[in-house]
Design brief:
Elements (H helix, E strand, L loop, with lengths): L5 E6 L3 E7 L6 E8 L6 H12 L4 E6 L9 H16 L4 E5 L3 H11 L4 H4 L3 H20 L5 E2 L7
Helix pairs in contact: 1-2, 3-5
Length: about 160
Amino acid sequence: MRSGVRIGVDVGKVRIGVSRSDNHGMLATPVGTVARDLAGLTDLVRIRAVVVELEAVEVIVGLPLALSGSVTASTDDAINFAARLKQILDVPVRLVDERLSTVSAQSALRASGRSAKTQRPVIDQVAATIILQHALDSERASGRPPGSPVEPTERP
């Protein structure tokens, strides 16, 4: 298992959940929620600040595929977001299948006694934590980095 903090990202239309791992890549924990900025860069800049502050070695972005594995509008949105994020980072960005992460997050929050209304502010953080934990577990089991790398593109 590679060492270093990883950042998990759950891209939504309104909010982006952010999580982090410990330095040993064993455990993912929530960091926060970033408001989505469809017209600008503030969401990307805020995530970059987390990456820099925590000296992260990699960012894992959830790839929302349909249950059948097919591509959806949300899939394209996450891929585009990951590509834009890669443009402003000096660390690898990887896309990892996140099917059912939000459903799992909702179930976990419901089981902890949170109502649907009180889940809203933290659901994205929990989904990001589930995505990152899945990626960490996958790497530990296979010995290979999870998902697929986002290839660098020209900087803006």
